[in-house]
Specification:
38% of the residues lie in helices and 20% in strands. The chain is an alpha/beta fold. Strands 2-1-5-4-3-6-7 form a seven-stranded mixed beta sheet, with helices on one face.
């Protein structure tokens, strides 16, 4: 009986720890620099109250799936322009940041900037350095996070879905708001 109680207590502690840890993808104070250095950066706490869904796409130049999903991301951006409840941003980095190779912020800005210009990307692009990539636990590119506003959540947002491949617009828009990816 004692062993059973100990096992149950251990499981409850592990589950509680998992639930506390899971929301730390997006700390409210994390700020991403704008690729256009003259523009302000992005911080989740800066979003207006009417935004209910935030879609964040992380990409790297020279990533074939990242290039493949560009038309879908443009459609998503256009939809977000027409829908005040939906916000879409992209965060660019460098393939080497996931491989834990040191790369300077200026190299990331240069590489991502050339990619954005060559691909004629219209949506807002921010920059993630190696520290950001580690904090977000990015395992590869592209990765897309769908977050929904949740007043019960510690940070005010709940991660609903995480895509680890090229996305289609319908996948993002069909992500249910009432359940987490962890349920």
């Amino acid at each position: 009986m004692k062993n059973r109680s100990l096992i149950i207590a251990t499981l409850l502690i592990a589950i509680a720890g998992f639930h506390c840890k899971r929301e730390q993808y997006w700390q409210p104070d994390r700020k991403f620099a704008n690729l256009q250095q003259t523009q302000p950066g992005f911080q989740i706490t800066d979003l207006p109250e009417q935004v209910e869904t935030l879609v964040i796409n992380l990409f790297a130049p020279n990533c074939p799936p990242c290039i493949e999903e560009l038309p879908e991301l443009q459609k998503l951006y256009e939809k977000s322009q027409a829908d005040e409840k939906l916000k879409f941003i992209a965060i660019g980095s460098h393939l080497d940041t996931v491989a834990d190779l040191e790369i300077s912020r200026s190299d990331i800005i240069k590489t991502v900037g050339e990619f954005v210009q060559n691909e004629k990307i219209q949506y807002p692009v921010y920059i993630a350095d190696q520290t950001d990539i580690r904090a977000l636990r990015v395992t590869g590119f592209p990765e897309t996070f769908v977050l929904h506003r949740d007043k019960k959540s510690k940070f005010g947002w709940r991660l609903q879905r995480k895509f680890i491949s090229a996305i289609k617009l319908e996948q993002v828009l069909e992500t249910p708001r009432n359940r987490s990816i962890y349920e």
